[in-house]
Specification:
Elements: H1 6-10, H2 21-27, H3 47-66, H4 68-78, H5 96-123, H6 134-161, H7 164-194, H8 199-225, H9 231-257, H10 260-266
Helix pairs in contact: 3-4, 3-5, 5-6, 5-7, 6-7, 6-9, 7-8, 8-9
Length: 268
């Protein structure tokens, strides 16, 4: 028999507790552990999501800093039908296209992140499975294409009835409101990552943002085109071809994303 000299080092000195008869009786009893549930997945605990959110935050901060004068000028111009001339500190055309592109990407990312958040709440991603980050990338691409597809439809519908100046003013207003919507969605995305924002809160916030967005577009539509003979016809075409149909398609797409077949076959 081999002597276990290491047991001397592991031995516990006797004291008033371990020398009692109750300690000896309790030491022989089986342990009754409490079953522990796995910690639920959260966006704030996902390192990859945090890095993406921080990167987008830097992009938003730089964009707002470099376009603050242009943004103020565009907001002032949005709420009037008269021509407003910019000063030497504001160039209305130099960086506007690039800013539109960047901010639309931010809005598309924010909306896809909120979609990913809702899916994570419904499906509860297990820790031992690879996270479906492709949802964020695919959603960003789809929301981005959706915005510029609407811009193309606007060009076609407006070109039929109006002059170049009115079309340009409407497209600029459309992208301005879309940028404001993107910033609002990014704030909601930040709240969903760094606070306890459930699916119901995300849906209510998104509906409120879209409602205000549509009101601002309708306001610009009335300001620009009601004094024209075809203004009423444009409003009808606007709501049918540019608003109702894309919203119906987007709703159908989101319903498909939340379909049980997608959840069961692709996320697990």
């Amino acid at each position: 028999m081999i002597a276990d000299y290491d047991s001397i080092l592991r031995a516990t000195p006797k004291n008033a507790i371990n020398s009692s008869k109750y300690y000896s009786a309790g030491k022989g009893l089986p342990d009754h552990g409490v079953p522990m549930a796995e910690r639920s997945y959260t966006l704030g605990g996902d390192r990859n999501v945090l890095l993406a959110v921080v990167f987008v935050f830097v992009v938003v901060a730089l964009t707002l800093y470099h376009s603050r004068l242009l943004l103020a000028f565009r907001l002032k111009k949005y709420f009037t039908s008269k021509r407003i001339y910019s000063d030497e500190n504001v160039n209305d055309n130099r960086n506007e296209v690039l800013i539109n592109l960047v901010v639309v990407c931010v809005g598309a990312f924010s909306q896809s992140l909120l979609l990913y958040h809702c899916l994570s709440e419904v499906v509860t991603f297990p820790s031992y499975y690879e996270k479906p980050y492709w949802i964020i990338g695919f959603g960003t691409l789809m929301f981005f294409v959706f915005v510029y597809l609407r811009a193309v439809i606007y060009q076609i519908v407006n070109w039929t009835f109006f002059d170049h100046e009115r079309i340009r003013r409407w497209i600029n207003g459309f992208f301005l409101v879309t940028e404001l919507e993107a910033y609002a969605f990014y704030v909601v995305a930040l709240m969903s990552v760094f606070s306890h924002f459930d699916v119901k809160s995300v849906i209510i916030s998104s509906i409120l943002i879209v409602f205000v967005y549509e009101l601002l577009l309708l306001y610009k539509l009335i300001v620009n085109f009601t004094n024209n003979f075809y203004g009423v016809l444009l409003i009808i075409l606007y709501f049918c071809s540019v608003e109702l149909m894309p919203i119906a398609l987007a709703w159908h797409f989101l319903s498909w994303v939340f379909n049980s077949n997608l959840v069961n076959n692709l996320l697990t």
